[in-house]
Amino acid sequence: MTTTARLGEVEIAYEVDGPEDGTPMLLIMGLGTQLVGWPADVIQGLVDEGFRVVRFDNRDIGLSTRTEGPPPTRASVVKAFVHRRYAQSDYDLSDMAGDAAALLDHLGIGAAHVVGVSMGGMIAQQLTIDHPDRVLSLTSIMSNTGNQRLRSVSLRLLPTMAVSMTTPRPTDEEEAVRLGVEGFRLIAGPHFDTDEVTTMVRAAVRRSVHPLGAIRQLLAILASPDRTAGLRGVRVPTLVIHGLEDPLVVPSGGIRTAQAVPGSRLLMFPDMGHDLPGPRRAEIVEAIARNARRATRVEA
Fold first, then answer.
1. What pLDDT score does 298 carry?
2. Which of 210, 173, 201, 203 is closest to 275 using CA atoms?
């Protein structure tokens, strides 16, 4: 069941799975994707490992707070793509990491194992940097360090992204689902499951439609500083997972993340794109659990 928490100026929608006495694990989803984007077998696998799994909608997506004010223009989005110094946003990744920390406060959780995918990996990194006492272990999946001097997106995707992020979304449910599925197919690896993704996208469309939120989140990413220096100070067990077929966050993003965090471990799959491929999920869950077991500190 989805619950909404008032956290200062924002409301964050969240769900909790697993035993109340389980070790807390916070899952942070990526750009424009709701908490329903987490595959059920990943959640169940982590619950079976003994974790109390917390998922939430980042601000500006799903059932969480929507930012007020005039929407970003097409020109401002394109300009931010061309050079990140032009990116203007009402918030950045530190603010989104603050939302995650506040949610832990709301749930009475002193510290948790933290797992983030894509933008969620960026938020998880920032949470570990800004609030190191709240993180027991870190898993960053298909993400990067935010180093603006390095290419992060496959060049073949840039024109499509620029158009899709600034094109009005259809009001017809079937067309919205079709476009959503095609968007995920564009960035996925060879194990793309059309039926599974269609079911997830349909659930998301029926739950909430807010395409402007994804644009605001993108600008928050582009407006945020490089995390490399901060990551060098991370001292919790860290696992970096990335797919060699990832066109949205190119594999060098995962490599650079692992290089930045002392003692981190890097797991790369040759058949993974910007997704959590079904045939690899059991391995991914086991790797996350193994990384969590490396932690010497327990929940406060």
1. 73
2. 201
